[in-house]
Amino acid sequence: MKICVVGTGYVGLVSGVCFSDIGNSVTCIDIDERKIERMKMGESPIYEPGLDELMKKNINEGRLHFSTDLAEGMEGADAVYIAVGTPPKENGEANLAFVDKVAEQIGENLKDYKVIVTKSTVPVGTGKRVKAIIEKAAGHSNFDIASNPEFLREGSAIKDTMNMERAVIGVESAKAEALLKELHAPFNTTIVTADVETAEMIKYAANAFLATKISFINEIANICELVGADVTKVAEGMGHDNRIGSAFLNAGIGYGGSCFPKDTSALVSIAKQAGYDFKIVRDVEYVNKLQRFKIVDKLLEAYDNNIANKKIAVLGLAFKPNTDDMRDAPSIEIIEELQKHGAHPVGYDPVAAENAKKVINNLKTADSVEEAIQNADAILLLTDWDEIKNLDVAKAGKALNEKIMIDGRNVFDPGFMENQGFYYASIGRKTVNGKRVTS
Ligand code: UGA
């Protein structure tokens, strides 16, 4: 099959590369010439484990192409995927300007029958909107629209796509359904077929539900702290119930990234426009905002409310491990809050430090964990990279001015930290008031 994918962000590029890897001829289109030139050489513009290798393999085998020319990409294509960005507007609504523009250009170049598929996360009703724009620009309706939302996670995008748990296909015609089923057959997965609006809604509902799980367990964690329970055990005990499931029950500093914050607020706004007040998801967002600051409160508590001039080693800056993505990373607001209190945060992240400097004013970064913690007055653990999880705690204790760690990801065992003599606070578990080094 021949596929054209417009937009080479996370979703577009990973989907395009994976579609080529299962045997299709794929052309990925982007307006950014420099980016296209880099990708032609097999260089991924985003940090995603395994992506460069897969790009090179499929370029060499002649199945994966890159171009800035949409007409060229659409030539002979069976399906055209729209995978451009839908950034949030000030009011939380998704901005559809890029989707609209691409739809118009597709219409202008549409000579023969194709299925035009939306892969970007778009408000319910966008499929119809895209259809109207294409019809107007093409002057005919020899095409079908479809929705095929993406469920991949940054950091494990290739694995998530190649082993997808389901494919959702929103269609209006049997012809489009057959084509998209054929395209997805090699993934050997469950296919959920629906109408276009339902498929669009499935994507928002899935992300909003996962975000709800996270805010729910974070609130349970906050209650655990008040009543002396341990949230990790609570999550374990809950997770064995198949109806609940153990995934996404890790309490921490709240969710970030380019998806959950954007999609929850877009869904609240979709509901509002339809005349419905989506109370649960509004609260999920509110709880998530508050959760970020809990970790700063815990540090203040360790220092009797005064962290002025304290050097704080902030370990992990990206919103989660295995990505350099800083979009809506909790570290941004947490570091700004530390700065407001007069502290001197020094950030360390294996790959996101440069991106972090672009979004956090006056951020000092270190080139290694060791450099960050040397003579620091506390560690604030924000992202559970393997390297950070494998921290040599005894060695760290010697490098620190004060053996204080506030662990936003519940990486370490409180009993172990107690034995190491640390003041150790985490999320929803007991705080250990170990001895400090100098005070
Ligand atoms: C999320 C969804 O998981 C994907 O299914 C979806 O395709 C994607 O959004 C999207 O819409 O494009 P992603 O944002 O890459 O993927 O990352 P997740 O692994 O879902 O993590 C999101 C945030 O939740 C991170 O900040 C993470 O630290 C946090 N999280 C996750 C928790 O705090 N606790 C958990 O138990 C799980």
What does this structure look like?
With 439 residues, the protein is α/β, with parallel strands linked by helices. The protein has 3 domains: 2-194, Rossmann fold (3-Layer(aba) Sandwich); 203-281, N-(1-d-carboxylethyl)-l-norvaline Dehydrogenase, domain 2 (Orthogonal Bundle); 292-425, NAD(P)-binding Rossmann-like Domain (Rossmann fold, 3-Layer(aba) Sandwich), CATH 3.40.50.720. It has helices spanning 10-21, 33-40, 51-60, 70-74, 97-108, 126-138, 157-162, 174-184, 196-227, 231-239, 260-273, 279-302, 330-340, 353-359, 369-373, 386-389, 393-399, 414-419, and strands spanning 2-6, 25-29, 64-67, 79-82, 114-118, 143-147, 166-171, 190-194, 311-315, 344-348, 364-365, 378-381, 404-407, 423-425, 432-433. It is elongated, with a radius of gyration of 24 Å. The mean pLDDT is 96. Bound molecules: uridine-5'-diphosphate-glucuronic acid. Uridine-5'-diphosphate-glucuronic acid binds next to α9.
